[in-house]
Amino acid sequence: MKTDALIDDLAGRGTAVSAGRAARILGLGAGGGALVSFVAMVLWLGIRPDMADAMATSAYWMKFFYTLLFAAAGFWTIDRLARPGTSSRRQMILEALPFAAIALLALVRLALVPAAMRMPMAMGHSSHVCPLRIAILALPVFAGTFWSLRKLAPTRPVISGLAAGLAAGALGAFIYAFHCDESAAAFVALWYTLGIGLVGLAGALLGRFLLRW
Amino acid sequence: MSEAEPRLKALMVAALGGDQAAYRALLAALAPHLRAYFGRRTGPADAEDLVQETLIAIHTKRATYDPALPFTAWLHAIARYKLIDHFRRMKLRRTLPIEEAESVLADSDAESVAARRDVERLLAMLPEKKRALVRQVKIEGLSIAEAAARSGISESAVKVGVHRALKALSAMIGRDA
Fold first, then answer.
1. Which end of chain B is more exposed for a tag (fewer CB within 10 A), N or C?
2. Nearest CB to A84; choose among B31, B55, B64
3. Does A17 touch chain B if contact means CB atoms closer than 8 Å?
4. Over the stretch B26-77, which tens digit does the pLDDT of each residue have?
5. Mutate to test the interface with A, among B34, B64, B86 (most CBs of A within 10 A)
6. Read out DSSP for B66-95?
7. What is the pLDDT of residues B119-162, one digit of tens each?
8. Set of chain A residues whose Cβ sits within 8 Å of the Cβ of B59
9. What is the pLDDT of residue A127?
10. Predicted pLDDT at A201
11. What is the ipTM of this complex?
């Protein structure tokens, strides 16, 4: 086709685009995925029975805010990466802050307990299932986020895939925290982060192939 | 493109609002810029393909433009992405034709050499006179009259000789197989 004819054709299909459409696509993908993940968590693992008591503890809110802030910064990063010609460095730095905070908190807590307590504190009672469960619960969010990104325009496929994986992992971890009754910062810093990191790795690997347009 | 930024941005914002005339003006204004951008970096034929691909990407991805940000940066990032994508595909494609061309030539050469060797081997099994006739008529491409003149025999003798020689040859091939 001649370029002039193409321009005529495209101009004829130039319908109005509302300002928030890109953000809505991302919200739909991530939000839809999160909804599926939450239902899967309730049916598969169940919300922890002591939820009401747990909400009175700082350990619960530590997990809640670590994962929620990580996910929020993650999706902000993705929103930038999905738009050509924008820088996402500040968002990436912001994304590292929740981890820095929880790692610091974990180190302080570990330093304050007797040496013999440190290992049990870090390992908890569910470290063998925690990262994998987080990764599984992250899958619907992961799929939804990739669906969104394919509709948008990420110009850096590997980085965008990594960011999508980390954000999905963080949201999966947020949802898993409704079930998980671990309360040590060291446990969360290690095993939650490992689960999130696994999903991030998968995102980087798949982004290279799936985020092409 | 920087002095064009305010004008292009205004057209883009209007286009996102559904103004198709502005949209057409925008795309028409971008085409020469893109042609020059890609032309400096690829051949002219590839450049035109890339111009079209980029225009299509501008269309399908236009929701990702944030009017709070510079239009030129958005456009450049898309054009650059399409260029990188093009080079990536070229790298894959570039190695293929060379390999293919070589292997095709190698195949046809080997085949014709082998065929010629087979013909020579078969001809060698014919009596000398018949071999000369077949060579002249069927391989060198002389007419019956020319072959007759060269061998000093009648045209019908040439025809009969060639016919019998070919019959003998096909019998030999049949036996070989």
1. C
2. B64
3. yes
4. 999 999 999 999 998 888 888 999 999 999 999 999 999 999 999 999 999 9
5. B64
6. -TTS-HHHHHHHHHHHHHHHHHHHHHHHHH
7. 778 888 888 888 888 888 888 888 888 888 888 888 888 888 88
8. 10, 13-14
9. 93
10. 98
11. 0.88
Which residue type sits at A164? A
Determine the CATH number of domain B2-96. 1.10.1740.10
Cα A151 to Cα A210: distance, rounded to the nearest angstrom: 11
Outline where chain A has alpha helix (H). Answer: 3-12, 21-44, 51-54, 58-81, 89-112, 115-123, 130-151, 157-176, 185-187, 193-210
CATH code, B125-176: 1.10.10.10
Instruction: Say what the alpha-carbon torsion angle A39, A20, B23, A210 is, to the nearest 10 degrees.
Output: -40
What six digits make up the tokens of A72? 């929020």
Q: Is B57 close to A22, i.e. CB distance below 8 A?
A: no
Q: Are A13 and B59 inside 8 Å of each other by CB?
A: yes
**Which residues in chain A have their CB less than 8 angstroms from residue B31's CB?**
3, 7
Residue type at position A134: I
Closest by CA position to A200, among listed A156, A170, A177: A170
CA pair distance A108, A120, nearest whole angstrom: 16
**What is the average pLDDT score of chain A?**
95
Does residue A1 surpass a pLDDT of 70?
A: no
Q: Please state the φ and ψ torsions of residue A179, each to the nearest 5 degrees.
A: -100, -40
Residue type at position B70: P
Nearest CB to A7; choose among B31, B48, B69: B31
- Domain extent listing, chain B: 2-96, 125-176
